[in-house]
Amino acid sequence: xxxxPEVETIVRGLRKKIIGKKIVGFWCDHRKIRQKLKxxxxxxxxxxxVAAKRRAKYIVIxxxxxxxxxxxxxMTGHLLYRPLDKKKYDKALKDPYNQYVHFxxxxxxxxxxxxxxxxxxxxxxxxxxxxxxxxxxxxxxGPEPLKKSFSYEVFKKTVVAHCNARQIKQVxxxxxxxxxxxxxxxxxxxFDAKIKPTRKTHRxxxxxxxxxxxxxxxxxxxxxxYRGTSTSDFRDVTGEKGRFQDLIRVYxxxxxxxxxxxxxxxxxxxxxxxxxxCSKCQK
DNA sequence: TGCAGTGTTGCTTC
DNA sequence: CGAAGCAACACTGC
Length: 283
Known about the structure:
The chain is an alpha+beta fold. It has helices at 4-18, 31-37, 41-44, 132-139, 152-163, 168-173, 183-192, 206-225; strands at 23-28, 49-55, 58-63, 67-72, 77-83, 101-107, 111-117, 123-128, 266-270, 273-277. Strands 1-6-7-5 form a 4-stranded antiparallel sheet, covered by helices on one side. The longest helix is centred in the last third of the chain and has 20 residues, at 206-225. It is globular, with a radius of gyration of 20 Å. The chain starts with a helix and ends in a 6-residue tail after the last strand. It binds a DNA duplex through loops.
């Protein structure tokens, strides 16, 4: 679910909802997360939230005690800001995203931040703010594609220089090359750029690279504008769906007619990921 | 019914 | 070193 546009949507929601809130309670029933947070409960309690940030697909929630909570939602994670009084969202409780809650922070205003995660791949940890730089450097993440500093020159250097004979889709998904693109947006970006996902990166022509660069910025920006893709169970912090699924052109549309040329969308496997493309529009 | 497929990352292996 | 394969987990849908 959560790729750059979804995580960005969540972070913007967090900024609206939890900045300035005081944490007064902590709960966790997930063994792996408890392990990570062992002995650190006191770092959460009686602190105030001062900032919410995104780096790649990571969410960083900064506290007023020099600590930062770092969350990764992986496949099925959700962050939900919801009232402690369950009667207030009775119906929504049945929805999958409201179940499978494994970690909660309670606030003094009788709301909570709940981390739900069906498949339990997601991670929550707390580190000191001055460790953040090292934390992210260790991940060797590539540049943020939506930053102004991510110019075409930077794109060419970082992306192309690294990638030689790899298939372009695998390169787009490689977080050490470019931060934040996942399977949905990789397929959509390549459709927009009219490039077949299996093309070898070093064989792309200058014009194709320029188009690809433009498509990356365009599709990710659009994804944020439409508040993410809820093909499956993505929800923002208030439980609202995104709307980008209405604009999807190829992802998981196997066998359906291409919106441009009516050719049936193909599904292949690239780097063990389901990959969808139009064999006529994408060369 | 059963098994392939699912949005991610990181560890192991070659 | 880079790159490919697979595991972590639980559910859906063919």
